[in-house]
Amino acid sequence: MTNPYNTDLDRNPANHQPLTPLTFLERAASVFPDHTAIVHGPLRRSYAEFYARSRRLASALTKNGIRRGDTVSVLLPNTPAMLECHYGVPMSGAVLHSINTRLDAAIIAFQLDHAMSKVVIVDREFMPLMQEALALATVKPVLIQYDDPEYDGAPTDFEAADYEVFLTRGNPDFAWLMPEDEWDAISINYTSGTTGDPKGVVSHHRGAYLLAQGNALTTSMQKHAVYLWTLPMFHCNGWCFPWTLSAIIGTHVCLRQVRAEPIWNALADEGVTHLCGAPIVMSLMISAPDGIKRDLDQPVQFFTAAAPPPEKLLADMRQAGFDVTHLYGLTETYGPAVVNDWHESWSALPSDEQARLKSRQGVRYLPLEQLDVLDPETMQPVPRDGTTIGEVMFRGNVVMKGYFRNPKATQEAFAGGWFHSGDLGVMHPDGYVQLKDRSKDIIISGGENISSIEVEEALYRHPAVAVVAVVAMPHEKWGETPCAFVELAPDQTADAEALRAWCREHLAPYKVPGKFVFTPIPRTSTGKIQKFVLREQARLS
Amino acid sequence: MTNPYNTDLDRNPANHQPLTPLTFLERAASVFPDHTAIVHGPLRRSYAEFYARSRRLASALTKNGIRRGDTVSVLLPNTPAMLECHYGVPMSGAVLHSINTRLDAAIIAFQLDHAMSKVVIVDREFMPLMQEALALATVKPVLIQYDDPEYDGAPTDFEAADYEVFLTRGNPDFAWLMPEDEWDAISINYTSGTTGDPKGVVSHHRGAYLLAQGNALTTSMQKHAVYLWTLPMFHCNGWCFPWTLSAIIGTHVCLRQVRAEPIWNALADEGVTHLCGAPIVMSLMISAPDGIKRDLDQPVQFFTAAAPPPEKLLADMRQAGFDVTHLYGLTETYGPAVVNDWHESWSALPSDEQARLKSRQGVRYLPLEQLDVLDPETMQPVPRDGTTIGEVMFRGNVVMKGYFRNPKATQEAFAGGWFHSGDLGVMHPDGYVQLKDRSKDIIISGGENISSIEVEEALYRHPAVAVVAVVAMPHEKWGETPCAFVELAPDQTADAEALRAWCREHLAPYKVPGKFVFTPIPRTSTGKIQKFVLREQARLS
């Protein structure tokens, strides 16, 4: 029996178009041409200007020989040019490759070669780094320098086209290229892979469209919201927020550097309603001197990821008028694909209980079809008991296309029809996922698994501990034992003995760290603690 | 040159799933099982119950032999069963066919036969009508009767399975069927076609997913919004709001009949935040006696379509605390695909100017890729001058699959790669579309086109006019001339002479109606004025 609803009812140009977030900007510029799209210091750009400049960029790239499937790399902080690249590059049919500005030249060179980069657009501040990378790389991309008016460093004398001059060569009415298929790549982002070569995560237009809308829906983001760029856009395309804001005709407030003073000023002066960042960004804001903190007229939503927000920080943020939502995801899931979807009734619980609930990563985003914790051997769900550890896995339309030019890694990541995150977690009885560790962060002591996060959580509850990271340390008898790296809170003191006693009170004996190291903890540019660095220190100590 | 981003990066079950709004309910029931999904009189159903009952329905239909591509017809008012059918029917792989409860038996019989209906689910109130239709129809569907606790009519003695008993045969944990492809049909809705046979508009899962999200995004609908069912769900699947509410974990407040008292009570007692309807629903609310109107604690959004909201009604609604947004669309576009997206600056204008701006249909919904006014001969856009009339056309992902078993009508509707709405309109310089008439409603007098809407707008500005409809009347000399049907406002008087004088002041002489008829104006169940009835009256008079 043929299905009668599949007869003479085919796709055609009137009823089927590729999903792409690029259409959001076209709509915003058409409907609200004069609304402020971008704020950057004293600079204000309307949606009409934002769209025209993005089309100029696409047109100029095309005139420069860029074709569908070419890679355009950018090394840019959170500036208007970075936003323009999120539209203008894919509008030329090219794939946007955003490079983390904190990487070293060798890794950048690897990425440029692997992505077969044809053009690189570089902020003046990072021109020396890019020159160093290009000297190591095989590819010879066209070099374009962006001269940010908010950057006051000394001029460089490198040979490069000027971004603004380049734009003037482009046509502001350029008939930009829709993707031929919504499965076409829109961007590539390299994971910082601590072992082996970085992997190039390829995202497609369909997923970017869906996650960009998912951000607005999941966070009930209103029309004309004002978003502050504390999250680096080079990190996973800023979780797709560069596209979300066009969907709701919002305003981007750019920020070159994440410092407390410009954050508080933007919150107060620009009427910021939303921002994202690791808990370290909240710490930075909360620990700012009173002279820098400002009174806010509007409620502010803060979306945090990377680590569970500690209880005290949550309380301080609430006190300061912020509503904090915990998100979780990976570059492979376009950014956040999991949300700690809050129940109103939880707000009446004691604050330690609220913090416990908020520390859980949560449930699937609307555009993610499935999220579960599976036993990676059997691919069966673990019991929903909040204690059995399994691997967090994803399936749905906001999971990457795969790893670029790496079919083996792609196949491994998708084995069994699920995306394997590499994160270990538990499933609570109410369907909320909680991370327990990265596979490689688990500590195996005398054959028992120790979750480094569990030990960290115990130490976070100690009033003197500001930041803590626990990794495996070699142990003659047990194989491994935990080693704790600690930053103390300002005006607080605690020594190893005090913390050890605290852990003995709150943890099983074999989970008590064998060593406490008091030291500043190394972090990535997105605020993630670099456990591989600590693991190396613990191994050598 | 092959595009390297298309190599070894194929779709697979981990990264590609069919888009379907059915997953919204699964998520809502999983994350907020106890949240109230449905209110119906004293009845309260949680999301867990809503989902379990929908799965029971899908399971019971499957046990009854329903397969992918079968049609399940329903003749139901806005009841919990109608909501369950919007999920349970497509969860069985079947296509939902909602029938307008105001149709006559002959048209219902035509629809049942044309859709090849296998099962019909009928509210007890409409069993006599369905029996009459089945007597005329060729198909012999399984008959199921829904006994709504809110219906107090006398029992019938027809032979039919009971809906609740039918559900008990289904499994609440049924592994419901995802669509095999997001292009699979989810529903069929017959247009009321005033000439020829009704056409069956086929909608697909992809479009329903996108428009359901588009409703929430376009209207900035918050998590846990409370929605009152004044719009019939049989009308174009209630503009996809049955699916939107699950996406934002909202609450449906059902309503068997659109009357002022239950509307005001629901607004006040259930904390309704959103409702939809034709301007007649607003009139009904505003003209209710003071004893029935209630004070509201919350702001309420009213989405209106079908006709431009008159100025006085807008002012009255604003006064009463409602925010009115004008939407526009057709069954072929899943309901609203155009929104009068409001600019904050417009709220400072005089109220007649605001009403003029609000009477425009507006701009494309986010999930509609293109909206334009084209010359149907040349398929070129008309000038953006607000006066040149063309045909309003749509293209994008929220345009129907086509007309069921009617390839000729489908091809005509999609000629030239656009969906031809049959509505005539103008494009304003700011990109907002304004309807001027249906093609068939235009009045041709002495070779000149007269927009019936223009004449109606002039009459609406007369203080004594409550409702007006203008149609063509035969004229010996000019071929046609306008004929105006008028309902006067309560406590107001005006005769034909007064209205004629008013029109002479405000319209070109050839546009002044040749006749004024003071009479109640016939409307469809969705509040649309039945111009074909009036045209017939004008022809015979």
UniProtKB/TrEMBL annotation, chains A, B:
The keyword Lipoprotein does not apply. The keyword Lipid metabolism applies. InterPro entries: AMP-bd_C, AMP-bd_C_sf, AMP-binding_CS, AMP-dep_synth/lig_dom, ANL_N_sf. It comes from the Bacteria. Residues 454-528 form the AMP-binding enzyme C-terminal domain. Keywords: Fatty acid metabolism, Ligase, Lipid metabolism. This is Acyl-CoA synthetase. Signal peptide: none annotated. The lineage of its organism: Bacteria, Pseudomonadati, Pseudomonadota, Alphaproteobacteria, Rhodobacterales. It comes from Albidovulum sediminicola. Residues 25-404 form the AMP-dependent synthetase/ligase domain. Belongs to the ATP-dependent AMP-binding enzyme family.
